[in-house]
Amino acid sequence: MTRYLSIFLLLAAIALVLIWGLGAVLFFVPAPISTPSPTATPTSIPSPTPTATPTPGPLSVQLELPSAVAQGGTLAVHLRVPTHSGSGPLSLIGQLDDRPLHFAREGGSYWALGGFPPWATVGPHRLFVQARNQRGEVADVEAQFEVRQSDFRIERIDIPAAREGLRAPEIVQDEFRIVAAIYAEFTPQRYWRGRFGAPLKRLAMSSLYGTARAYDDGSVDSYHLGADLRAKSGDPVLAVASGQVALAQELQVRGNAVILDHGWGVYSNYFHLSSIAVRPGQKVVRGQLIGYVGDTGLSTAPHLHWEVRVGGNAVDPWPWTERDPLRVNE
Ligand SMILES: [Zn+2]
Question: Residue 244's closest CA among 260, 264, 265, 266?
Answer without folding.
Answer: 260
